[in-house]
Amino acid sequence: MVLLSATDRRCRIYNPAENYRVIFESDNYDDAQFWLLEDEYELLEGRLNASELI
Fold first, then answer.
1. CB neighbours of 12 closer than 8 A, spacing ≥ 6?
2. Burial 36-47 (b: 16+ CB within 10 A, else e)
């Protein structure tokens, strides 16, 4: 999963296994991060620009 903050300040979680389909969207980073951690996804360090995905 990839968590990105867009220029509209909404946070979206993309699934690379599904051609980077948005699987979760939130008004803030904390809610999106909690959604990932709740499902036991592992945090990776690094940065990626949303324009590289779509």
1. 3, 4, 6, 22, 24, 25, 26, 32, 50
2. beeeeeeeeeee
pLDDT, tens digit (0-9, with 9 covering 90-100), for 17-40: 899 999 999 999 899 988 888 866
Element (H, E) at 31: helix 29-38
Rounded to two decimals, what is the model's pTM?
Answer: 0.68
The neighbour count for residue 31, using CB atoms within 10 Å, is 12
- Please report, for the chain, the start and end positions of each structural domain, with discontinuous segments joined by +: 2-43
